[in-house]
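queue> pop job 88
queue> type: inverse folding (structure -> sequence)
queue> payload:
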């Protein structure tokens, strides 16, 4: 493979404009990430310290191997939800290495709302369970939770039950879950250690019961202490819910790491052995390459050469269907097929993409989609040229592809273009977003313009004059509202992605994601659904 020769001039005005705009987005991202790291009010943290407790992120760091990479997942879920617990909910989660093995790790933030589960936290747990199951990742739960947030119970009851089902379904598949309980695991929360393959309870601190002393008194008139109902020693010596009795938090973490040494995890399907060459260009330049304004076009190859090994890229059909870049490369030594938008999707681009997906499946190579498109080309000539059947061909190929995939939203992601480029509804193994990205049915101005045309036609059909002043006001309000709901902040709050990332960290996120994908055998699809020619 030959290296891509960058044509970017870092001294150009466009580069500087992009850089300034993207840095502004990153400031917003950094602020949101700081808020997501909130672990409770000072008084709650002080009380935890007084009781000799570690905080959620400290526990997570201790369970990881020294110098292990770690990517946090869904850190901003629920950030814009009214009545929720804020960005990230009440658990810190991500993928790292424990005892030499890739693991999913969930750490309850017991100092934030008592670790209770709100709406966003439940859906975050479901998505994490899906990632764990699809990628066969062992899970370590660092538990301290008050169970469901009661005001949210009507919204989360059924979904909460699904999280318990997922633990035991993964167990059936041979994907173990280890739970270390440091404090309360109440009501439904008691089923987290109860359903786990291995449970570790901290002496004198773990309290695991379906009902605490007040509810037991109310329901049965029985008087019992929290220790008698669900203490670590009772569960270790009498009920058998606990498999290991830990002396303290560090001992509990030690036991979890020891178990991870013993559990069977399939050997990685592929581990790079060749020398891994860094890109020829500095990752810092990505901020000047990718426009902060998604309306500004740029060549996706300029991003590709800053994230792939040695900037080397085997460009497939470079002269045909030029608004879709396709080709093969390596990232941290892992082979990957890349599909990247260079604008609107024409019939030629869709056909090229479908063929490329077939080839990658035939050769068992995972796929990376870099989304930046307003969708499929519209108009009379394009309809006559079969844009629907050709667009459907690309969606068919994406839908039936069986090699694992990763999607990265780097700009626009509108309409069926989102589908043809492997959006959330097409189940990529991982999906990350740049802070400048936009996602929706169509752009705000286009949508508002369509609505104006409809309103004008409606007024004309009723024999009325169109109110220009009111129409302009409604259009401006609609544009403002759509801008909010198509932003990266809205999509990540709604868990449409697995995290908004700093573009400079792209290679690191993709490297760990590909290591996860290559941890199990990769086999491409043998056939596809019917498509028109």
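queue> result:
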């Amino acid at each position: 493979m030959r290296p891509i020769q960058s044509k970017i001039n870092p001294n150009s005005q466009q580069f500087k404009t992009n850089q300034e705009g993207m840095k502004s987005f990153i400031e917003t991202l950094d602020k949101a990430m700081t808020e997501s790291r909130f672990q409770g009010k000072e008084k709650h943290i002080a009380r935890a310290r007084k009781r000799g407790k570690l905080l959620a992120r400290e526990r997570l760091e201790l369970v990881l191997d020294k110098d292990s990479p770690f990517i946090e997942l869904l850190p901003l879920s629920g950030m814009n939800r009214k009545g929720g617990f804020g960005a990230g909910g009440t658990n810190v989660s991500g993928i790292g290495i424990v005892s030499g093995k890739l693991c999913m790790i969930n750490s309850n933030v017991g100092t934030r709302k008592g670790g209770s589960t709100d709406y966003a936290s439940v859906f975050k747990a479901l998505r994490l369970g899906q990632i764990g199951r699809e990628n066969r990742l062992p899970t370590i739960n660092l538990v301290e939770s008050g169970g469901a947030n009661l005001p949210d119970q009507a919204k989360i009851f059924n979904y909460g039950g699904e999280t318990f089902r997922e633990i035991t379904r993964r167990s059936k598949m041979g994907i173990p879950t280890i739970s270390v309980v440091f404090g309360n695991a109440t009501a439904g929360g008691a089923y987290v250690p109860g359903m786990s393959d291995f449970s570790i309870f901290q002496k004198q601190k773990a309290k695991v019961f379906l009902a605490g002393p007040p509810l037991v008194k109310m329901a049965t008139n029985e008087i019992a202490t929290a220790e008698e109902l669900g203490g670590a020693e009772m569960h270790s010596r009498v009920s058998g819910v606990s498999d290991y009795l830990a002396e303290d938090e560090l001992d509990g973490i030690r036991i979890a790491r020891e178990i991870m040494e013993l559990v069977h995890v399939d050997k990685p399907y592929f581990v790079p052995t060749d020398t891994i060459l860094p890109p020829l260009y500095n990752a810092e330049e990505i901020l000047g390459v990718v426009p902060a304004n998604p309306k500004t076009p740029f060549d996706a190859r300029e991003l590709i050469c800053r994230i792939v090994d040695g900037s080397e890229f085997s460009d497939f059909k470079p002269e045909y269907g030029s608004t879709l870049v396709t080709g093969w490369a390596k990232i941290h030594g892992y082979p990957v097929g890349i599909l990247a938008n260079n604008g609107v999707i024409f019939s030629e681009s869709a056909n090229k993409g479908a063929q490329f997906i077939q080839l990658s499946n035939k050769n068992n190579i995972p796929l990376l989609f870099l989304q930046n498109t307003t969708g499929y080309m519209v108009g009379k000539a394009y309809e006559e040229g079969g844009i629907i059947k050709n667009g459907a061909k690309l969606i068919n190929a994406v839908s039936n592809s069986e090699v694992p995939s990763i999607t990265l939203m780097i700009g626009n992601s509108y309409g069926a273009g989102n589908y043809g480029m492997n959006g959330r509804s097409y189940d990529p193994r991982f999906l990350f977003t740049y802070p400048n990205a936009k996602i929706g049915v169509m752009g705000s101005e286009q949508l508002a313009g369509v609505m104006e045309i409809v309103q004008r036609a409606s007024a004309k059909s009723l024999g009325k004059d169109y109110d220009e002043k009111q129409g302009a006001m409604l259009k401006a309000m609609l544009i403002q509202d759509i801008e909010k709901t198509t932003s990266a902040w809205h999509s990540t709050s709604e868990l449409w992605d697995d995290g908004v990332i700093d573009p400079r960290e792209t290679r690191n996120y993709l490297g760990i994601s590909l290591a996860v994908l290559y941890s199990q055998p990769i086999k491409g699809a043998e056939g596809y659904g019917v498509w028109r020619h």
